[in-house]
Amino acid sequence: MKKLLTLTMLSLLLVQCDALSAPSVAGPRNTVGSINDESAEYATLFAKDQQHKTQETAEVLNYLLNDNDPEDSFTALVIENTSNCNIIVRAIAVDQKHIYNLPVPRKAKNHFKIYKGNYTLKSNVCTARYYSQKSVFDSVILTIRTN
């Protein structure tokens, strides 16, 4: 009798937890697919980024080599990507006044002129996710790598 009661309880538990149901059609989230979806966006952003790169490089070098001017509302952000994947670093100001989608090639650096402020930085780095909050009031050099 005790075995029958235990077996009945175990059966009810399995049915209640959907352990005996068929697998879901949707399946698990495909993280590789979401990374691949960024490849077209990356190509567009990188092409746009290269259009005025000479002028921006001169401005970024000024920010890196000179003292921080408190009156200037811009500063430099240099991102080094040591991973094997092209990435888009999404920088969103905490006040949401400034949003940047910054393309960085694999095994390379890219530099940008951005408004000073507090930012949330997010990126898909190969199959990993990067998330950080940074105060950017002076020039920043950021290295993103996979483990």
TrEMBL record:
Keywords, in A-Z order: Signal
Superkingdom of the source species: Bacteria
Signal peptide: 1-21
The DUF6759 domain, residue ranges: 51-146
Protein name, as recorded: DUF6759 domain-containing protein
